[in-house]
Specification:
about 400 residues, alpha/beta, D-Maltodextrin-Binding Protein, domain 2, 3 domains, six-stranded mixed beta sheet, five-stranded mixed beta sheet, globular
Length: about 400
């Protein structure tokens, strides 16, 4: 028996080394992830993920469109993890960026309304409240809300698609010719605050809550706001009868050489153990059937609106929002043209302003340029104010000087 012990110990040692988190994993088990900014709330679970899978995730946060453009430009990551993969999947075309993807958690994009306003509007425990009802209240001036910029943030992007589809009166995926511009203009009359990300929008809502009646965001963000202790009045979540679009947080494999690590990750992320831990930490819904919902998450009937099936349709929605539907922006640019700007400084300034007029044809540049109906003030200065000019953008290709 004594002679066999070294073999037994060696077998035991090898078994332990092969277990996740027991030391056999190398630097190849560190995966780079381009992730949506809203996934910062998953950080408390990263050590647990590493312990159970042996995979260390290094997350770099970015906006949805910026992230898609970064990947299409050839910048390499092992994984991408956004709240919704529909736009990137359509954009990649023949590039074949995404090797495979799996949904990891769920959070519908819905409207949160102050409780007093929800009572006033008759929307408490009302399954028949609609996006049209919301548009009517916004158009009349009774409802002022916050929503992220759809051309920058996935929550606003998802909300725009959902609202636009619902207001067509059809249950089919929206087509470019279906957009009800007047109905959307009525809806966006109530948008009184915007932001570039869902997290920043939530923080801004806390600051501006006395001037607003609610906000559109992920269900998980709205529930977290109610739990934060920062609100003077709780939000009632409205799940419009026509339907919503649910963020399903697909983990997308971009580097085929990391398939084995990806498989380990997916097996754990979709396990009942992690799904319950994730739900308790982030208030997102489990994607795996059979797991009981956390008692803090409402249980209305969720009607899912279909996602558009082409980039052209999505782009037409975004451009229509920027040029026709939203309240027009009024921007002031204060430009330093003093001697200290000679050389590269003034050249960079000119390039930046030229890009805003439409010379930047990148994915994000197309949406960041001056838009129709905007009023732009340009103030140039050196040691004194040299010139003030005010322009109104008639459409994206022409402008009128107002002074």
């Amino acid at each position: 028996m004594t002679a066999r012990r070294p073999f037994v110990y060696l077998t035991l040692a090898l078994t332990l080394l092969l277990l996740p988190g027991c030391g056999l994993f190398s630097s190849s088990d560190t995966l780079t992830v381009l992730a949506g900014s809203e996934l910062k709330d998953i950080e408390p679970l990263l050590d647990q993920i590493k312990r159970e899978t042996g995979v260390q995730l290094e997350l770099e946060y970015i906006g949805t469109l910026d992230g898609a453009e970064k990947l299409l430009s050839g910048v390499e990551y092992d994984l991408a993890w956004f709240s919704h993969g529909g736009y990137l999947t359509l954009l990649q075309g023949g590039h074949g960026l995404v090797v495979t993807q799996e949904k990891t958690m769920l959070s519908p994009v819905v409207m949160g309304i102050k409780e007093s306003r929800a009572w006033e509007f008759g929307w408490i425990d009302n399954p028949d409240a609609t996006w049209q009802d919301i548009a009517d209240k916004a158009s009349s001036g009774e409802l002022r809300y916050a929503m992220t910029n759809p051309a920058a943030s996935n929550s606003g992007f998802t909300a725009l698609i959902g609202v636009a589809t619902a207001l067509t009166g059809s249950s089919d995926a929206i087509n470019a010719g279906d957009v009800n511009v007047s109905a959307l203009q009525a809806f966006f009359k109530g948008q009184a605050l915007t932001a570039g990300s869902s997290g920043w929008l939530a923080e801004s809502y806390i600051t501006e809550q006395d001037n607003l009646d609610g906000l559109i965001n992920y269900e998980s963000v709205l529930l977290s706001l109610n739990e934060s202790g920062d609100l003077r009045e709780d939000l009632v979540l409205i799940y419009p009868k026509e339907g919503i679009i649910t963020a399903d947080y697909p983990l997308m494999l971009l580097n085929a050489d990391k398939q084995e690590q990806y498989d380990r990750l997916i097996a754990y992320l979709r396990s009942p153990e992690f799904q319950e831990e994730m739900m308790g930490t982030t208030l997102r819904r489990p994607v795996v059937p059979g797991i009981a919902l956390d008692g803090r998450i409402p249980t209305p009937l969720l009607v899912e609106i279909p996602f558009p099936n082409s980039v052209a349709i999505i782009d037409s929605l975004l451009f229509s929002y920027l040029d026709e539907q939203r309240l027009p922006a009024y921007a002031i640019f204060v430009l330093d043209v003093s001697g200290s700007m000679r050389g590269s400084g003034i050249n960079d300034l000119q390039a930046a302003m030229n890009n805003l007029t439409g010379l930047d044809e990148s994915l994000t540049g197309r949406f960041a340029r001056f838009r129709s109906r905007e009023i732009i003030t340009l103030v140039t200065f050196s040691d004194h104010v040299e010139d003030i000019r005010i322009f109104e953008i008639n459409d994206v290709n022409s402008l009128t000087m107002l002074n």
